[in-house]
Amino acid sequence: MAFNAEQLIEAGLQQGLIDTNTLSILRADARRLRVDLLDVVTARYRLPIAAFYRAAAEARGIAFTNQISVLPSADLLKKIPQALIKRKILLPLSQDNNGVVLAVSDLNDSATIESIKRIIGAQVTIVAAEPNVLNAAINRAYANIQSSEASNTEAGNVEVDLIALLDNIFKEAFLRRASDIHLMQDDFGLRVRLRVDGDLQDYVTETAHDETVASSLISRVKVLANLDIAEQREPQDGGMSYYLPPPFDSEFNIRVATAPTRLGERVTMRVLGQDA
To answer: pTM of the entire structure?
Structure first.
């Protein structure tokens, strides 16, 4: 299990991300709107959820990572039961003479961390990470060693709510104040990147999405932008507006451009009218 909403909000208070007086008002707003308090807090302060996980890590003096690009070796990954890794959302990243670097989503789960130490038989250095980032890294790690073929097949057959998925992407773009959203396909399926202050940042969705989901999401964007979904070999340009309901309550205009790539179409969405 990862941190719950109240634990993340408490970490935000401790690290000065939010203040007590405003939080009291936001609690009332959350009850009135019947929405999650953490959504109201992130919308009010325009902070992504990763900022609160970082705050929780910093409060404990533990390093935080929001991107896991280096995956563990097969030998290291096989030392820990796959069921434990997926249930507890943790991942051993590397091992050297000093021990194992272990990325975890719940810094309060000391019992599991002690169990990992006993299983590996080495010292463990903890790194905190957001659950979405860890889940994606876990899926990539097992795909790399081709040790969960059945799980991968099941994931590909799960029905995905494209409306909710696109909503989550736009919410994250809003919270990060992104100027552009890039949807593309890579070797693992859907990849989402946000341009923030000129730099591209990966946005990791809650679960891994295969190439079918990637192409379906791109087709949905093309429909919203009045583009020809049958045309995939030529670039296209269009536009649309997108509304995020309360607590975000924001509508913005989007310029949409598509381009063919080796692995499928790529979509770039320029978010117009965002605050600097």
So the answer is: 0.79
